[in-house]
Specification:
This protein is an alpha/beta fold. The chain is built from 17 helices and twelve strands. Strands 3-4-5-8-9-10-11-12 form an eight-stranded mixed β-sheet, with helices on both faces. It has a four-stranded antiparallel β-sheet with strand order 2-1-6-7. A hairpin with a 5-residue loop joins strand 11 and strand 12.
Length: 462
């Protein structure tokens, strides 16, 4: 396991849930006691406990959530695999009726293969669209944003599916698909792909990070981990996201010697971009992602600034994130706003309505996480406001409870109306309709779906 405390961090608060027993967690919640030595599950520099440790309840909840996710990791993966397999089986055999008739007639069912170019993720069944909007051409103000949204959505699929869509449907070049190593979790937890759009002028390379998958306990554990590291001059940054991006024993040194069997995200993607631009003077690139993928997208840009990668930053046209959580504190906000201005990088943080994820971790005096940059906030009619922060910035603030649930009712009804108003390509799948029903209970979860984020790039005002 990689050391927890990068040598060039000036300060940190790191949680290690694998060291936390239920007894010690309850004792911590009751009295604030943290075991020392090998049994310690909250870490900070000597003498920094009072300054670094937020409310006990928040730390307890983060730890207990991570412990729970470690317990359910395998059963959740099995359930997710079987559910996904079932959805693909239905799709290949004409839905449930087709499966039943095939069995009755004694014929063979078409069985899904998880690595095939037709095998979809659960999120691929929530929003089944794979074509770009042909009415939005290069040069249209909506083009790059829609391409980013579709790439973010596509990142949830397998390598063969991504290649088929990029090459055959979008008529673009797939540079590569990446399965990337997390040194802390000792797993391949980060996925991304890179493609080149040769239809635009200049050519655009798209780097798309995968977000949090519904049945991926490792990704959810990254999301709920409130650990942070403080870098001199940058501020405090979310520890879980840094680990997913490739945090090393000594932080993010300028160069590392990679293990070819365990490539990490930042250095692998940076090297590919360097290579791609060697003989192409005019090609530019964007970085994008949905959910956790959005956090990784903006942090990828932040490490480029830390390393003063001038040649790459001059080619970076923009960072487009969809439903991105908060990634750093107020100092990091100031640092990034200054760096984005210096390198003239466009950063658009797109938030749909009551989406829960952009409202976590909480923006309060305890956790100190802040958003920064220009936020394009879309309501459930896909009308936009450009704001610094979204309404109801902390999701669990009870003041908007009634309006959130009423809005969820409208979104459920809208799903039946929108294909008749906007066209058949906006028809919502039954999987999404089921998610909308769940959204009647927890509106912020259903509002995080990729369909609404693609819709705002096509139907939203600008």
């Amino acid at each position: 396991m990689a050391p927890l405390f990068p040598q060039n961090c000036s300060n940190y608060m790191v949680l290690t849930p694998e060291k936390a027993s239920i007894f010690n967690l309850i004792r911590f919640l009751w009295s604030g006691h943290i075991p020392e030595g090998e049994e310690a599950f909250v870490h900070f520099p000597k003498g920094k406990k009072d300054a670094n440790l937020p409310r006990k309840l928040i730390v307890f909840l983060s730890l207990i959530a991570q412990v729970f996710l470690s317990w359910v990791n395998i059963p959740l993966k099995i359930f997710g695999f079987l559910f996904e397999l079932w959805l693909n089986l239905l799709a290949l055999n004409g839905n449930l009726l087709g499966v039943i008739l095939t069995i009755i007639h004694g014929k063979k069912l078409i069985l899904p293969y998880t690595r095939s170019p037709t095998y979809r993720s659960v999120l691929g069944f929530i929003d089944t669209r794979v074509e770009l909007d042909k009415s939005i051409k290069p040069g249209d103000i909506r083009y790059t944003k829609e391409l980013a949204a579709m790439a973010s959505k596509l990142s949830y699929e397998n390598r063969a599916f991504v290649k088929t869509i990029v090459t055959n449907h979008w008529e673009m070049e797939l540079i590569d698909f990446y399965d990337l190593w997390n040194d802390t979790q000792k797993k391949y937890t980060t996925q991304a792909f890179m493609m080149k759009d040769k239809t635009s002028d200049p050519n655009i390379v798209v780097v798309a990070f995968r977000g949090t998958e519904p049945f991926d306990a490792d990704a959810w554990s990254t999301d709920v981990d409130i650990s942070w590291y403080e870098y001199p001059g940058m501020g405090r940054i979310h520890g879980g996201f840094l680990k997913a991006l490739g945090l090393q024993e000594n932080g993010f040194p300028l160069e590392i010697e990679q293990d070819p069997d365990h490539p990490v995200a930042y250095y692998t993607l940076r090297e590919q971009l360097r290579s791609s631009f060697e003989n192409e003077k005019n090609t530019r690139f964007i970085v994008t992602g949905h959910s956790l993928g959005g956090a990784l997208a903006i942090l990828f840009a932040s490490i480029l600034t830390l390393h003063e990668e001038k040649l790459l930053l001059e080619r970076l046209e923009g960072v487009y994130t969809f439903g991105q959580p908060r990634v750093g504190d107020d100092c990091f906000k100031v640092y990034m706003e200054e760096q984005l201005k210096i390198y003239d990088v466009k950063y658009e943080r797109i938030v749909y309505c009551n989406d829960l994820v952009p409202r976590v971790p909480a923006d309060d005096p305890t956790l100190l996480f802040k958003h920064f940059g220009m936020c394009f906030y879309y309501n459930s009619f896909y009308s936009v406001q450009i704001v610094n922060e979204v309404p109801n910035k902390n999701y669990f603030d009870l003041s908007d409870t009634i309006s959130k649930h009423l809005n969820a009712v409208w979104e459920f009804i809208r799903g039946f109306i929108i294909p008749f108003v906007k066209g058949p390509e906006y028809k919502e799948s039954w999987t999404l309709k089921a998610l909308r029903v769940f959204g009647l209970i927890i509106p912020g979860v259903s509002a995080h779906n990729t369909q609404d984020y693609v819709n705002v790039t096509r139907l939203g005002s600008f």
